[in-house]
From TrEMBL:
Protein's recorded name: DUF5133 domain-containing protein
Domain of life of the organism encoding this protein: Bacteria
Length: 75
């Protein structure tokens, strides 16, 4: 499996988080649409199927990590 560069993942996570705030503040359809696009890119970049799992995988650098996966637990 190809893995996204860590810098790309960090940028996608930061962009997604900023869009969550922006959408919460003004509720624009543009922000919602862009947030959905970034969520999709995160899923593709991490090999996951939903944005919450993609965020965990991106933050921890784990390709295809699942929320029930014990590899995201700290020691």
């Amino acid at each position: 499996m190809l893995l996204a560069h860590p810098v790309i993942l960090r940028n996608l996570v930061a962009r997604y988080e900023a869009l969550v705030v922006l959408q919460a503040e003004n509720g624009s359809s543009d922000a919602r649409r862009e947030k959905e696009d970034v969520a999709y890119m995160l899923c593709v970049a991490t090999g996951t199927g939903d944005v919450d799992t993609a965020l965990v995988a991106a933050v921890h650098g784990l390709p295809g990590a699942r929320t029930a996966d014990d590899s995201v637990l700290s020691g």
